Amino acid sequence: MTAQARPTDPKDLVAAMAAGDSGAPLNEFYALYSSTVLALLMKMLGTRAEAEEILQEVFVELWRRAPQYDSSRAGVVAWVVTVARSRALDALRARKRRYGSGQMQFFSEKHGPKTDGGRPDVLVSSTRWHQALRQAFKRLSEEQRAVLELSYFLGMSHGQIAETLHLPVGTVKSRILAGMKELRAMLPIIHRSMVA
Amino acid sequence: MSDDKERAELLAALHAAGAASEEDENELRVLLEADPTLEALVKDFQDSIAALASSFEPLETSPKTLGQIQKKIAREKGGLLNRLRGWFSKG
Q1: pLDDT per position as a tens digit, A109-139
Q2: DSSP A11-62
Q3: Measured between CB atoms, does A137 come within 8 Å of chain B?
C-alpha cells in the first residue's frame, strides 16, 4: 500500500505566508481556494473579467494580511470569504459611483452567473463539500435567503433591505436572525457529511 | 433566553450577515468587551455565512492568474526590501 500525502492544514499555509513565503504555500493556498473565491466573485459581480481581476487583488491581500490572521476569531474559509466579499463590495460601490445604482445588479443562483459572452465558464467538478453545502442550504426559506443575499452579497444594511423589500425593519432583522440560526444549525450536518 | 442574550444574538447575526448599522456594531463591541464568550457566537455565525458564500459551483481560474498574483507579491516584497534598506542606510 502506498502512503498518501496528508493535505496541509490551511492554517499552516497561512502561517507560512505570514512568514513571507510566497512560493509553494501560496500556490497550495491558491489551489485550495481560488475556484471557490472566483465563484463567489462571479456571483457578486457578474462578469468574468472583473471577477478575475478582483481575484488577483484578493489573493495579494490575503498574502499581505496573513500575519494578522487569528484562527481564534475566524476559520480560514471565513477569513478568505470575508476578504473576497469586501473587495467585491468595493468593486460594486465603484461601479455604482461610475454608472449609478442601475448597475448594482444581483445575480440570483437560479439565473446563474453571467459570463462576458466571449468564453463559457468552465466548471470545476463539484466537490462533495459543495454538494453537501447546496443540499443543506435548500433548507433555508425563500424569505431567509432573500434577506441574507441582499445583506451579504450586496452589502445592504437592515434599513436598506427593509426599504427594498417594503418590509418593517423588525421583520428584516428577525428573518436575518432566523436564517443565521438555520445556517449555524446546518454546519455540523455538513461536516458530518464530509467525514462519512 | 434573557433579553440581553437575545439582543446579543441578534447583533452577532446582523454583524456576520453584513447587515449591522454603525450603531449595532458599536453596541456589539461593548457587549463583546463585557462578555468575551460572545466571540464564539460571532465566529459561529461568520463560519456559517462563509459556508453559504463558498457553496457556489466552483469555477476554474485562468492559468495566468496565479502567475500575475506572484508577480504583484514579488513587486511588493521588492518594494518593502528597498524601503527597509533605505531606512537602515539612513541609520
Answers
A1: 343 433 333 333 444 555 666 777 777 778 8
A2: HHHHHHHHTT--SHHHHHHHHHHHHHHHHHHHHHH--HHHHHHHHHHHHHHH
A3: yes
